[in-house]
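HOLO CASE FILE
Compound: adenosine-5'-diphosphate
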Amino acid sequence: MNTKEKEKYIEEFDFPHCDESTKYEKVAKIGQGTFGEVFKAKEKNSNKKFVAMKKVLMDNEKEGFPITALREIKILQLLKHENVVNLIEICRTRAAQYNRYRSTFYLVFDFCEHDLAGLLSNVNVKFSLGEIKKVMQQLLNGLYYIHSNKILHRDMKAANVLITKNGILKLADFGLARAFSANKNGQVNRYTNRVVTLWYRPPELLLGDRNYGPPVDLWGAGCIMAEMWTRSPIMQGNTEQQQLTLISQLCGSVTTEVWPGVENLELFNKMELPKGQKRKVKERLKPYVKDPFACDLLDKLLILDPSKRYDSDSALNHDFFWTDPMPCDLSKMLAQHTQSMFEYLAPPRRPGHMRHPHHPVPGGPAKPSSSMADSGYQDRVF
Ligand SMILES: Nc1ncnc2c1ncn2[C@@H]1O[C@H](COP(=O)(O)OP(=O)(O)O)[C@@H](O)[C@H]1O
Ligand SMILES: [Mg+2]
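Model generated. C-alpha cells follow.
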C-alpha cells in the first residue's frame, strides 16, 4: 500500500463495537484529572440523555492503546452495580489527516450530577445525620461489591465518589484499580505501593507494604467518612513522612504492640515513626462528629493494623447504620440545589489549595514527593 492508500484504509476502517464520538455533543468540561479531561455531553439522538466522557490520554511516544486505560476498561466492564459508575461504551474520533490519523478515545459513562468533593466544598449543602449514613452505607456497599469481585480501588477520595441528583452514590475512577488475589501457599504479592492520593493513603502503603489488600480502600472510606463532618480532608500531609506523622498524631504511635508484624515492612526502619503518641481518633473527631456511633465506626475504620481494620461487611453491620436516625434518602436535600457540584468547578478551598495533591503516577519515580513542601498552605488539624 502506498501512503494515500493507507490513509484511505485508515479513514474508512470500521470499528464494529466502537461508535464515533460525534454521536455526543460536549456541553461542559467537568474534570481535569492527572490522566485526562472529563466532559459532560449530551447524546444527540436520544432525548436529552447526559453522559460523562473521559478522554483516554494517549502515550504520545508509544504506539497503540495505553495499557492503563485497557485495565480500567476491563475492570469497569466486569463491575456492574448500583453503587459503581456505569461504563456505557468506548467511543472514538475518526482518524483523519487533521489528527494525523490518530483517533482520540473516550470512556462514556452515565452522567452523575455531583461528586462528593464538590458537594462538601459547598457550604450550602447540608447533610443530616441520616443522609450521612446513607452516603456511607452506599459507599461501603460499593466497596463490598468490588472487593467481592477481587478488585481493589486504590484511589478512594471524595472527588472519586459521584452522587446522582436522585441521591445514588457511585464509586468512580478505576484508573488505579487492579485485581487482587489472596496469598496462595505462602506466596506474597508484590503490588506497587505508589497508589492512593497522599491524604487518603493508609499507613501500610506509607511503610512500603506491597502485599496489601482491601483494607487500603477502607482507610480511605474512614477518611471520607470523617470529611462528611469536617468538610475538608482530615490529614493533609505535604510529604509521605509528614502524612505518617499526621496519622500517628491521630491514630497513635505505630508500634509492634498495636500492629504485630509492622517491623517487617520495608520502610519501617527508614521512616521516622513518632513515639509516645496516644490514640485520639474519637477525642479529636468528637467536636465535629458528635454522634457516638459515628465516632465508634470511624475509630474502627482508621485502625493502623490493616488486619484489624474493619472490612466493609463489619462496617455495614455497625450500629451506626441500625440506630435512629436510620439512613435516609438524599434526593430531597439534593433537589434544593439545581447546579452540578464537582471538585473541578468548586472554588479553591483556601489559598494555595491544590486540586490534586500527590496524585500517584503508577510507574512514576519512587522518591518521596516533597514538591509541595513550600507551597505555603496551612495544615489543618482536626
Ligand atoms: N460519570 C460521571 N459523571 C459526572 N462526573 C464525572 C463522571 N466521571 C467523572 N466525573 C468527574 O470528573 C472527575 C475526574 O474523573 P475521574 O474518573 O476521577 O478521572 P481522573 O483519573 O482524571 O481523576 C471526577 O472527579 C468527577 O468530578
Ligand atoms: Mg479521579
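CASE NOTES: Residues 33, 159-160, 173 surround magnesium ion (ligand 2) (CB under 6 Å). Confidence is low (pLDDT under 50) at residues 351-355, 363-382.
CLOSED: yes
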